Amino acid sequence: MKYYLTLLSAIVLFSCAEEKKNEKPENEEMTEKVKLMTLDPGHFHAALVHKSMYPQVDSTIYLFAPEGPEVKDFLNKIDAYNSREESPTDWTIESKFGDDYLQQMISDKPGNVMIVAGKNSKKIDYVLAAVKAGLNVYADKPLVINPEGFEKLKEAFEVAKQNNVLIYDIMTERFESTTMMQKLLSTMPDVFGELVDGTAEEPAISKESIHHFFKYVSDQPLVRPAWFFDVNEEGEGIVDVTTHLVDLVQWEAFPDQVIDTTNVEMVKAHRWPTVLTPEEFQKVTGLEEFPPYLKKDLKDGKLHAYSNGEMIYKINDKFAKVSVIWNYQAPEGTGDTHYSIMRGTKSNLIIKQGEAEGYKPILYVEPKNAENFEAALNKAINGEVKTQFAGTTTEKMDDGTYRVNIPDEFKIGHEAHFGQVTENFLKYLEAGELPNWEEPNMIAKYYTTIEGYKMTQE
Q: HSE of 312 in the Cβ direction (CA atoms, 13 Å)?
């Protein structure tokens, strides 16, 4: 009997030991960290993703790139984020340089997410190679710049489904506070009514953005690579920055709705160049002369960069207009600007960013019938708006419009939006899927920009 009691005690003790042995310490990570691989960072947006750190992301950045000034700029920006006094980051970088950087990334595969922001001409090939290798893709816009690239994009989404990975493009402008407020108010029937159908001359929704080649990023003058001005590498303006604007049209006018390409019809599109002198080109690139591949775009010794574009199209039977303009440098005290109008049956929602606004985006509400409108607007501001943008107020202007004053705490700036988009992407990555409308709407978005581009080439 004593033998059996001893044996039983030993079994119990062994079982308890095994149970404790298999238990994970409370502070041990329950899930494996996301590991980021940055491929060929030719654009400063690649660095801005790392301006913040994320608890679910490993602190090592695996960098695969050709040697050159672009990757040096990326490394310098990461070093600056790590060494800043306020909220320094703690990234470490494992680099592999060489001409076979893509093959090295696919072969080594030290991470599970590829970040890419650089030459737009190569981007879709990087994306396709990554999803074929079972990697998730987090990419700067635009994913494609020509019809051939669009066909590859559709293939990439099919491959991503088969390999159970995600493709996501970085749409920072969804997090700009006045745009978010414009979208929110457009969902309120008592304030906005519903979106009108519009016409080609007066579209239901219009968006225009003005950008500048010479600017400051992270408090440093931005040096752009010469290929940025080559439409064969960067793409024309109508397929580049307009990606953001087309995305906002879809996101605001048809929230959470799947958009099919058959419901997009291009009406008219055109493009025109920004002309840069040799001195302006030297200031923004650091180069003393134009490289040979830009000779095709020189006229009378000046560079004609086709960075400007405009398109008018119908989407779900509503007329929309997007236009992008690139100037060389913004006047002192100004910067990139944005204009947007959504026309409703009860009011227009207008974002302006001119001199009267101190070159900061401000949303105005323009009622179409003043009767009882102020009461409806105040009810909205003190209700749903207050829950999302606490402290927001309205101010009636002399012309009868209402200025919406959003507290400064919600105006965090363009660079900080990259962290917000990344946090969104990480949630989708953890869930293993995007919202059901994101993928078809990405396809519809690039279908729109490519249709506009095709029309300008006719």
A: 10
pLDDT of residue 125: 98
Question: Which pTM was predicted?
Answer: 0.89
Q: 256: Cβ–Cβ under 8 A, 6 or more apart, which residues? A: 435, 437
H/E stretch holding 379: helix 373-380
Q: Facing residues of 57 across strands?
A: 34
* The one-letter amino acid at 418: F
- Residue 397 CB partners (closer than 8 Å, separation 6+): 364, 403
**Residue 162 burial (CB count, 10 A):** 10
| Per-residue model confidence as pLDDT tens digits over 42-52 | 888 999 999 99
| CATH 3.40.50.720, the chain: domain bounds | 34-169
Q: What is the pLDDT of residues 107-151, one digit of tens each?
A: 999 999 999 999 999 999 999 999 999 999 999 999 999 999 999
Q: Is 32 helix (H, G, I), strand (E, B) or coil?
A: coil
In the chain, CATH 3.30.360.10 sits at: 173-457
Strand partners, 348: 343, 366
Tell me how crowded residue 214 is: count the other CB atoms within 10 A of its CB.
17
CA 30 to each of CA 21, 23, 56: distance values in angstroms, whole numbers, following the listed order: 16, 11, 11
Question: Which contacts (CB < 8 Å, 24+ apart) does range 198-202 have?
Answer: 198/318, 198/319, 198/320, 198/343, 199/319, 200/267, 200/268, 200/312, 200/319, 202/319, 202/343
CATH number attached to the domain at 173-457: 3.30.360.10
CA distances for 219 relative to 44, 283, 340, angstroms: 13, 17, 28
Just give the CATH number of 34-169.
3.40.50.720
